Amino acid sequence: MKKALLLAKRGEKNTFPNPMVGCLITKNGKTAGYGWHERFGGPHAEINALKMAGGQAAGATMFVTLEPCSHWGKTPPCVDAIIKSGIKRVVSAMSDPNPRISGRGLKKLAMNGINITNNLLSKEAVRLNKRYINALQGGKPTVTVKAAVSLDGKIAANSGDSKWISSKASRNYVHRLRSQYDAVLVGVNTVLYDNPELTSHGKGKNPVRVIIDPSLKTPLNYNVFNDSAPTLVFYCSGSADKIFKLKNKGIALIRVPKIAGKINFKHIIKKLNILHIYKVFIEGGGETISNALNSAVVSDLMIFVSPIIIGGRSAKTAVEGPGINKIRDAIKAKNLSISRLGRDLLVRALLK
Q: If I label 103, which of 32, 196, 226, 304 is the partner at 20 to 30 A Cα–Cα?
């Protein structure tokens, strides 16, 4: 089991909001196969280990750091594959901490004649997946909008260039902030213009990268699709070839409908909450921020104001969209606070 726990840790960067899981299959005192959950949306540890073991799985013992799943999610139930393989014994480090499904996987294995041992090195397994277990406990969703603007409220020049409006001190602060959130979310235009990493840049754990890309325009070689962190894409339509290639890279895709020409942001937040992603950091662009604000899902704002003036009628602002006709209809912020970061001012405010 210690070896399985070490295997699980290999998926530390790329599995959240799923747990880290490792699996080792032994037969006659020798390793027949091993694997770990490598990426959110990808095959589970048990499936990878069974694939390596092949026919040697029959009559073997499986050591796995978390109870095998018994339900359909992004992948088929692991218990069905275990039963089919002929594994005779399963040793689990802990039951699934999700109360809706806890114990079901082990029960199904036992009902199919497989010998079960549970809670071997359970303290170590719980410690390994503390982040996942905390996320399961849920709580009130938090959606923060962050924007870096000039004194005249612009987030980019006419050309779309935005590097850099905010100071290095502000950017470093944002990198650290990302590690405090479950996900960082941007729209496709931000990805196409900036080609961002959307990681903590080594200043903490990496959040899940969430991209709103209705037509799957993002090129496959862009940074958001590298292996630095898991990536989830909300889309409406796309070619079968592009979908296949994205899935082959380990990118998770969720298809959502458009309502009145837009993706409903409440629907997105609800989908993320189902995945145990509760703290979301929205970093633009202007249309995405407008959509989020008008959907009333935003709880607070973080606006970094740089002492520069950009100007230009076509230069993008932090909040695009249709806007309002009457000042009385403006969204009201409260509990404002102002602090300094390098040359910039950071304005914080609550909306809820």
A: 32
pLDDT at 142 over 70: yes
172, two tokens: 């470093």
Cα(40)–Cα(18) distance, rounded to whole angstroms? 6
Answer whether 118's CB lies under 8 Å from 274's CB: no
pTM of the model: 0.76
Say which CATH topology domain 139-350 has. Dihydrofolate Reductase, subunit A (3.40.430)
Cα angle 231, 220, 320; round to 5: 65
Q: Of 275, 281, 264, 309, which Cα lies nearest the Cα of 145?
A: 281
Residues classed as catalytic: 46
According to CATH, where is 3.40.140.10 located in the chain?
1-135
List pLDDT tens digits, range 307-340. 999 999 999 999 999 999 999 999 999 999 999 9
Write down the pLDDT at residue 139: 62
pLDDT digits (tens, 9 = 90+) for 177-234: 999 899 999 999 999 999 999 999 988 889 999 999 999 999 999 999 998 899 999 9
Name the 3-class secondary structure at 328. Answer: helix
- As a whole number of angstroms, the distance between CA 234 and CA 135 comes to 21
Amino acid identity of residue 121, one-letter, is: L
**Closest residue by Cα to residue 194 from 219, 161, 227, 170:** 161
Is omega for the bond preceding 164 within 30 degrees of 0, making it cis? yes
User: What is the second-level CATH architecture of the domain 1-135?
Assistant: 3-Layer(aba) Sandwich (3.40)
CB distance 275 to 290 below 8 Å: no
| Alpha carbon distance 116, 91 (integer Å) | 6
The DSSP bridge pattern shows strands 115-117 and 89-92 to be parallel
Per DSSP bridges, beta strands 300-305 and 142-149 are parallel
Cβ(288)–Cβ(213) under 8 Å? no
Alpha helices per DSSP H over 305-344:
none
* CA gap 278, 270 in Å, rounded: 9
Q: How confident is the model at residue 145 (pLDDT cuts 50, 70, 90)?
A: very high
